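User
Here is a favour to ask of a fellow structure person. I am asking you to supply a protein in sequence and C-alpha cell form. Please set it down just below, with no commentary around it:

Assistant
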Amino acid sequence: MRRALGLALGVALAGCATYRPLPLAQDARLTDRVADVKVDVASMPTAALRQHVFDPSRGLDMTDVAMLAVANNPMLKVARDQRGIAHAQAFAAGLLPDPVLDFSRGYPTAGPANSTAYSAGLSYDLGALLAHGWDVRAARATAKQVDLDLLWQEWQVIAASRQLFVRCVYQARMLDILRDEASRRERFHRQLARAQRRGDVSLAALGLDQSALQAVQSRRDAMARQLLASRQALNALLGLSPQAQLPLLQAAVSPGPGKAEISRDLATLAQRRPDLLALQAGYRSADMRYRRAIWQQFPSIDVGFSKGRDTDAISSRSFQVSLTLPIFNRNRGNVAIAKATRQALHDEYTLRLAQAKSDIARLLNDRAILQRQRAELATSVAVQTQVAAKLESTAIPGDLSQAQRLALQLRRDDQRLDLLGIEQAMLEQQAALAALLADAQ
C-alpha cells in the first residue's frame, strides 16, 4: 500500500508546473526610432499587409504605418496577453477531472486490539466527466471569440492609424499654405506701416490690416497645434515616444469601393467581419453552457471503491455510490443565468449587425456629399487660378494694387485649404468604411 501511494504521488508530482519569477520593470521607456520596432510581416492580420514590403528607409506610407501599429500598439500587446489567458482556460477545460484518493490509518489507544486500522479509497465524479464535453466546446468557442475580438481590435487600430496618417499629412500641407499666407500678409503689413509713417495711409487702415494679419496668424498657429496633437496621437498609437519623427509620404484620394462591391460586402458581412464572428462564437459558448446547466439538473453521481482493515485485523472491500437528490436546488439558478446570458448575446449580435449596416449607410451618404463638394471646389480653385494668372499677365502696371493681388491670393488659398480639408475627410472616411465593410486592405 505504501509503495502504491508513493508511486501515485510520484506520478502526480511529475507533471507539476514550477514557479518562475517575473519581476516588474522599474523604468519603461518608449523608443523614438522606427528602426527599433520589429515588424513580423508574416503575422500581419490581413493579406494586403502580409504582401506589402515594409521598408521605412524610403519613408512611411499608409500601409507601413498600419503595419507598425499592428506590431507595436501597446493596447494590442495587452489584448494578446488576454488571448493567452483565454487559450489557457480552454486548455484547462479540456483536461479530464482528477480522481480522489483517500487514505486513513487508525491506532488503538485502549482496549484489546490485534492490529492497527487503515482505510484506502478511490472515487470519481461521474457527473463532471459526463459534462466534460459541454465544458470543452464552450471553452473552445470562448477562445475563438477572444481570437476574433483581437482581430477586430487589430482592424480598428489599422483604421485609426490610417486616419491619423491622413490627418498628419494633410494638416502639414494646410500648415504650409497658412505659413505662406501669413508670410505674405506680414510683408504687406510692413509695407503698409511704412506708407502710414509717410502719411500715405491712414492709421485706421493700418489697424484694420493688423486685425486681418492677426486672424491669419491665429489660423496658422491653430493648425500648428492641431498638427502637433495629431503627430503625438499617431506616435502613441504606434507605441513610439512623443519625440519620434516619422517620415510620412504623401497620400492621394482614391475612388473607393463602388456600389456593386459594397452591396456584395454587405451581403456577406456577418460571415466576414471579426466582431460579428466573435459575437457568434460567444453565442455558441453561451449555448453550450446553457445545455450544460440543463444537463446538471439530473443527479450528480460519485462512484468509489475502498479497501480497509479494522483493529480486529478484519479486512474488507467496499463499493459506494452517492447521488445528489434534485429536490430543492435542481440547478435552477444556473439554468436561469445561462439562459439569460444566451439571450443577451443573441440580442447584442442582432443589434451589432443592424448598427453595422446603419453606420455603413451613414458613411456612404456622407461620401456622396463629400464627392460632390470636392468636384465643385476643385472647379472653383481651377477658375480662380486661371483668373489670377490672366490678370497677372494682362494687367498694366498700376492697374492692380498690392492689396488687390493679396486679396486674390488669399481667396485662392482659402479655397485650397477647403479642398484639402475635404480630401482629408474623404481619406479618413475611406479608412473607416474599409473597417466597417471588413475590407481587408
User: Anything to note?
Assistant: The beta strands are 100-106, 117-125, 301-309, 315-323. Residues 132-198 form the longest helix (67 residues). The CA atoms of residues 186 and 213 lie 7 Å apart. The longest strand covers residues 117-125.
